[in-house]
Structures are given as C-alpha cells and as structure tokens.
Design goal:
Chain lengths: 335, 335
C-alpha cells in the first residue's frame, strides 16, 4: 500500500478574495492591475517569512504557463488576462497566491493525500495574514464578495483528487457521480469542468459556498470522500478475491506495454499508469524503485515534458519521448 | 534473420492414391478397411527401412487426434471415419502416410522453409516404394483416380506456409489473394479451407491437379512463392525505413504483452507471436535464447497444450496456462 494515497491522491483548497478599492479583474485597466499587484506584493513582504517566488504571466512562455497548469499550481483562468495576472508560489509548492484571476486574489493550498483540515488551516493562515493588511470586499450578510456569484459566501472551493480504477472497472462511476451530485458536490476530471477522467482520476469538490461555514463544507466533503475511498477499497478487495487473475492480467499488460512501447499518447499513458498504480497499491507489483505514478503522470503531460526538456516537439515526437521517459522510469524496477 | 524461414515457414506436399481392388474409403466396410490397412502395413514392413510409428485413429483420444492436426501431421478428414482410419508417422515427422482418409492413401511430406523440390522427391520416393507392391488405381488418360474429382490427375497438392505480417499491415492481403487465385492457386489460413489467417500465416497451394505434371505444378508454385516472399521482404524494408518507429512500437508492445500477460486466448497469442517473429526477423529484437516462434505457436494450441501437460482444461484455464507457457519462453530472453 502506498500509505494513504492509494485512493485519495491530493487535496486542494482555494478561496476567492477581492479588494474593496478596485474593480473586478475583468474590468480593471492594466495600470490599476499593476497597482493592485504591487499592493499585494508589499503585503507579502511585510507579513510573510516564507519563501515565495513571484511570476508575471506575461513573462512566462506559453509552455511554462501550461506546465504550471498541468501541475495544478495555477488555474487555467489565470492565463486568460495575460497583462494583468501574476502569482506567488511558495517554495514547497504547497501554496499559490494568484493575483487578478477571476477575482483579485485566489489563495490555493495543495497537499498530498486526504488532508482537508491541514489544507484549510494553511489557506486560512495565509488569508488572515493578507486580510490584516488588505481591505477585503466583505458583506455581513453575503460574506466575501466575488466576481462570480457562485463563489459568494465563503468563496471557498475544496477538492480532493481520487484514483478510482476499480469503481471504473465495475462501471459504477456514472451512478456514483449522480449520487455525489445529489449531495451538492461535483465530480470532474483531472483538469476541471468538462475534462475527461483520464487515468481514472476524479476531483470531488463542493458546489456551493453560500450559507455554510468553511468548516461545515469541509466536514461534509470529508465524510463523503471517506465513503468513496471505502467503496473503492471494497471493490478492490472484491475484485482481488473474485477476479484476481483478470485484474492481475490487466495490470501486467499495462506494465508490459508501458515498459516496452516506443510511442505513446498522453491519454493511453494515463490509463496504463492508472493500472500500474493499482498494481502497486494492490500488491500485484512491487514498487521497489519508488516510482511516484502521479508525479510521472504530470511529467509526461505535453507542456511539462517540453518545458523540462527545453525543446519544442510535435505530437509524434512527444509520443516518442513520452514512451522513452516511462521506459526509463520502469527500467529501474526489478520485474 | 532466421535463415530463409523469415517468410516461407514450411512446405507440405501430399498425394492421393487409391488401390484398385477396394471401394473408396467412404463406401468401404470396416472389414475391408482393416484388410486394406494390413496390406499397406505389410508393404511398409517389406519396403521401408525408416522408422515409422503406426496409429489407429480409434486408439487415440480426441485430444491426441487434435494435437496431430494442430501439428499439421494429419488432416482433419482422417478423423472423420474413426473406425477405418489410421496413419504411419516417420520418426523425424517429415512424412505421414494416412490410410483411409478421403482416399485410400494420402502420402504427405512436411519440410521447413521453402523446399518444394525436396518435399516432392521424398513424397515421390515413398510413393514409388508403395507403388512397386500395391495395385494403384490409375487411368492412362486421367492419371491417378481419386475419391474427389478435384484430385484426379497427379493427385498432388503442394502448399507453402508463409508469414506475411507486413503485407497485412499495409492491407495488401485481399488484393494479393485475388491475384494468386487468378493464377490458379489458392490462399488459405493456417488450418486449411475457410480458416482465418491467424498469426498472419497463409498457406498458398495449387488448385488443380489435372493436365499438368507434378514438376510443372511445383515449378509454377515455386515461382509465385518466390515472388510473394520478395514482396513481403520489400514491404518489410520499406516499413523499416519509412515507419520504423511505428513498426518497432508494434513489435515491442506485442513483446511486452506476451512477456507479462496472465491470460491469453489462442487468437491473441498468434497475433502477438507473429509480431514477435517479425521483430526477430527484422532485427528489432535479438532472439538470443533461440525461440522457435512457429513451434511455440503450435505448443499453445488448445489440444497440443493439454496433451503435452496431460490435463483437461476449460477455456479460462487454457488462457492462463497459455500465458504462462509464453512467459516462460520469453523469460529466457535478455531484453
């Protein structure tokens, strides 16, 4: 077992905050956007001891922007208003403060495993430090005001990334997604709204932010996540007992293909890596060289791959190099 | 390169002969069938020094019969009239004399590679020895008389088994089959008339036996086979040069699946083994442990597998053991 990360991969919380004296980012002119950015940077310098790196979107190449997105360190929205947006990334990459995204501030924390309380504490701590210096737009009835009404209230979205290969094998994902939606939560693919659940990775998050406290939202989400994790683990146990050979076959076929193929699309790689992770987590394969499948999944995404290799690649070249990166990782295993 | 057997795997020639004083096998009663069998056996004892083993179909289990068929040592027809049929198998398995198949005698020779002349010489030699003692049904106009009119004349069918993976990849097999048919030859799958070309293996053979000498038939077939072999080799060269990475990917994927899967149907195994053979023959993979793919293809056929292991297996168990046999063979390779 990969500790507790066999099913719950990572936890992400972000809150939306706006400053009273500025228009929402979409209506902000570049001069005011820069003013706001400097205000935030000054506050950071005064209040934060942690090591944060500052990036303006306009100073990054398209590939670099995509890489930060693929790593879930920034949101796709942040790159829509190139001249106004920027972000601060904490050295350990556990926190990002996005400036002039849809809202003036988006504070995001990203921890591994199911870690809602810790992610919320960290988020809240950063928020408190900023709030002590900045003039937040806040209404005593509505809570924090946001650019999009769905975020009004706590302005918080908490989400947990889950690896659900066995619920997928037994075709249970559609009905589970329906059930989760009825509980007021959303289920999305790896890269948010409308994206496919590539690699059997699903993000489960709260839908509404109004009328509940952050703690209530987190507690409810936590309870449901624990149930889903339990379901996935039960199905894994069931399949191991009843369909062990079929499961082992599926896992080893993916392993064989990953270990030997010469060309591989990102989508295919995600699916085989999902099976490989399942193989590690169910004990069918020994992860003796300590491969981190989730990190590898990100490493082989188009932009991250090209950024790290510092080259421009067409689709065919990417598929070639992706297969090579995976083969290299797997060559260290003693199977 | 696996010597000359990169494309032409094996050559098989069989001739049909009947004895004057007996009805054709279908109309023969069991007593006369036994009498005929004993006549042939007596002739064998007198005229043959070679070591032949004698098998009556009725003394063999269904699995044993199937095994000899899978190995192409006897024809499916031989097992249709269980009480009348038998065969003599030469120690080196290069020759079989079938008794009371569709005809009284079917003499078959089976050599590796493209070897029509030698196969014909061996067949002819056995035929001459038998003819010197037995009273063959022969008409000076029609030639050897046979139960089925399509065999009248020389009574000979010569066929060469070809491995044509690259002509298949470029979707050329249908038009090639058409062209070959127009030349008066037939193209069939691994197990004769109506069987699928599993593992990209095709048998090309003469269609008619009347109005031509054996040598003419063999020369014509040989010329056409050499052309097909040349075509397949050219396409291999072309694909290596122009689509080398795709070809290598296909071969290594098959290798990865063969090396690691836990369950495999016979059909799937044939296709991946075909790709593996191509990998050896094109130099993409080193056959350092000397695996004979064609022998392995036969080893994993349902009956041969069960006969050799001496067990009864259902489909799922066969798929499991087939995968295991293949894994064991491949584990000796140093890839």
């Amino acid at each position: 077992m990969e500790s507790d990360q066999d099913v719950a991969i990572s936890t992400r919380i972000r809150i939306a905050r706006n400053l009273k004296d500025f228009d929402f980012p979409l209506y902000l002119n570049i001069e005011d956007a820069d003013k706001l950015t400097n205000t935030v940077l000054d506050t950071m310098k005064e209040s934060f001891d942690d090591n944060y790196k500052f990036f303006r979107i306009r100073d990054l190449s398209v590939k670099e922007r995509l890489m930060y997105m693929e790593e879930h360190l920034i949101s796709p929205e942040l790159t829509r208003q190139i001249d106004k947006s920027s972000f601060l990334l904490r050295g350990d990459e556990k926190a990002t403060i996005m400036i002039n995204e849809e809202d003036h501030l988006r504070i995001q924390t990203l921890l591994s495993g199911l870690n809602l309380d810790a992610a919320w504490r960290l988020c809240s701590e950063i928020d408190d430090k900023l709030e002590s210096k900045l003039n937040y737009a806040y209404d005593s009835d509505l809570g924090y005001l946001t650019a999009c009404p769905t975020n009004v209230g706590t302005g918080m979205r908490a989400s947990v990334m889950l690896h659900l290969p066995c619920l997928s094998i037994i075709n249970h994902m559609n009905s589970l997604t329906e059930a989760i939606r009825k509980l007021g939560l959303t289920v999305r693919g790896l890269y948010g709204e409308g994206t496919e659940a590539s690699g059997n990775l699903y993000q489960v998050s709260n839908q509404t932010t109004l009328g509940q406290t952050e703690e209530e939202i987190i507690n409810k989400l936590n309870k449901i996540i624990i149930q889903i994790v339990g379901k996935e683990r039960n199905v894994r146990k069931y399949l191991k007992e009843k369909k062990g050979f079929e499961l082992e076959d599926k896992i080893y076929r993916s392993f064989g293909i990953l270990k030997h193929s010469r060309l591989m699309s990102s989508k295919e790689a995600m699916n085989h890596l999902s099976a490989l992770k399942l193989g590690f987590d169910c004990g069918y394969l020994l992860n003796d060289s300590g491969i981190n499948i989730i990190e590898l999944m990100i490493e082989i995404m188009p932009a991250t791959m090209q950024k790290k290799l510092n080259v421009d690649l067409d689709k065919n070249e990417r598929d070639k190099i992706r297969a090579e990166i995976i083969r290299n990782h797997l060559s260290r295993m003693e199977v």
